[in-house]
């Protein structure tokens, strides 16, 4: 049968009003909420708070330690792993609730965890030098360069793709760090020399590079040795790496005779011994709770949400450091902060899972 020469034109649907769009958004949000049990959203909220509250608190407390009289880089790096039992204890309810068994350790897996623990101890020590000589806001911004090194080492070791958005993020974050370096004269605390500032800057970036390497090596362990990535397996790795990091850091503290010096530090610490102990204890707890929160967000939601929360965490830490610790905040640092946030946004956008396009045949 012959088709008519002219087909009737389909009218475009009328544009939705703002009220209809809001209604559709609320309906979508309601459907998403109902799709998961309330316990899921409670855990996701707590995990998100771990990233947005615990990690910034850990950064600020590290700076408080040095600004109030603490001097040992080994002690503050030891604090980062001192609460390693937290992820280990979290494994117990995880095994019960998920009805899974502990991963059987092999020789190569144990060696991998020991190596990652050693690198983690070195990484924490490098970051400690950053917090010793840099404002917390600056150290937090420099820490964002770990994204660059994660992408680089992920490409070399794991074969992750380098997309245009990743390259854009790398360029933006590198530019932001260059701006901070050029503005060093207005970004120092009293009593910190230019040489110390430069040392803190270099060690902080080096720590970010090592952090990126650790991230890529951890992913390599999952790919080569474990063959899967589930919540309890990641938690096991975190507990094991933190434990070995604690062991290596404790050896360094003992060798440097810093445990013996803690009593002297506590006596001269601004606020007294109780304040000294509080800073160390809360610093240890907040760091591991932040790590636990990051693990939770990764598996309760997605890597995209984890990336979004991490991108929010950087300016949040900087603003908190300015408000609480009276960090210097020049126009250049604000510009660097904006560019860093832009870089994170580019990275998150590029890694957002694209929906599959479907085509219809006529």
From TrEMBL:
Alphabetized GO MF terms:
purine nucleobase transmembrane transporter activity; purine nucleoside transmembrane transporter activity
Q: What is its main location?
A: membrane
Q: How does the record classify its membrane topology? A: Multi-pass membrane protein
Q: Which SUPFAM superfamilies match?
A: Multidrug resistance efflux transporter EmrE (SSF103481)
Subcellular location(s) of the protein: Membrane
- Which GO cellular component terms are attached? membrane
Alphabetized InterPro entries for the sequence: EmrE-like (IPR037185), PUP_plant (IPR030182)
Transmembrane annotation, as ranges: 38-55, 75-98, 110-132, 138-158, 165-182, 202-227, 239-256, 276-309, 330-349
Q: Which keywords has UniProt assigned to this entry?
A: Membrane, Transmembrane, Transmembrane helix, Transport
Family statement: Belongs to the purine permeases (TC 2.A.7.14) family.
Q: Which PANTHER family match?
A: OS09G0467300 PROTEIN-RELATED (PTHR31376), PURINE PERMEASE 5-RELATED (PTHR31376:SF10)
This one is known as Probable purine permease
């Amino acid at each position: 049968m012959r088709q008519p020469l002219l087909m009737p034109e389909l009218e475009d649907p009328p544009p939705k009003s703002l009220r209809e769009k809001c209604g559709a958004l609320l309906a979508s949000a309601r459907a998403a909420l109902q799709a998961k049990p309330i316990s899921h959203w409670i855990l996701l909220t707590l995990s998100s708070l771990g990233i947005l509250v615990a990690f910034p608190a850990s950064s600020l407390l590290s700076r408080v330690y040095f600004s109030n009289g603490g001097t040992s880089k080994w002690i503050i790096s030891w604090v980062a792993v001192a609460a390693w039992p937290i992820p280990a204890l979290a494994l117990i309810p995880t095994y019960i609730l998920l009805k899974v068994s502990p991963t059987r350790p092999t020789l190569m897996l144990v060696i991998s965890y020991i190596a990652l623990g050693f690198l983690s101890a070195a990484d924490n020590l490098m970051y400690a030098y950053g917090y010793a000589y840099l404002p917390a806001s600056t150290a937090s911004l420099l820490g964002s360069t770990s994204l660059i090194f994660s992408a680089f080492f992920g490409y070399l070791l794991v074969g992750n793709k380098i997309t245009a958005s990743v390259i854009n993020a790398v360029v933006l974050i590198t530019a932001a760090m260059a701006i901070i370096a050029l503005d060093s004269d207005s970004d120092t605390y009293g009593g910190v020399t230019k040489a110390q500032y430069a040392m803190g800057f270099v060690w902080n970036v080096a720590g970010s590079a090592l952090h990126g390497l650790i991230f890529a090596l951890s992913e390599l362990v999952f790919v080569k040795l474990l063959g899967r990535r589930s919540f309890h397996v990641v938690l096991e790795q975190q507990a094991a790496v933190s434990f070995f990091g604690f062991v290596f850091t404790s050896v360094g503290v003992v060798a440097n005779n810093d445990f013996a010096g803690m009593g002297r530090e506590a006596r001269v610490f601004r606020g007294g011994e109780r304040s000294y102990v509080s800073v160390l204890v809360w610093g240890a707890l907040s760091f591991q709770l932040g790590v636990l929160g990051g693990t939770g967000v990764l598996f309760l939601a997605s890597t995209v949400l984890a990336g979004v929360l991490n991108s929010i965490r950087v300016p949040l830490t900087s603003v908190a450091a300015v408000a609480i610790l009276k960090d210097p905040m020049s126009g250049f640092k604000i510009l660097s902060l904006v560019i860093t946030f832009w870089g994170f946004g580019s990275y998150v956008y590029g890694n957002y899972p694209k929906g599959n396009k479907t085509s219809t045949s006529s």
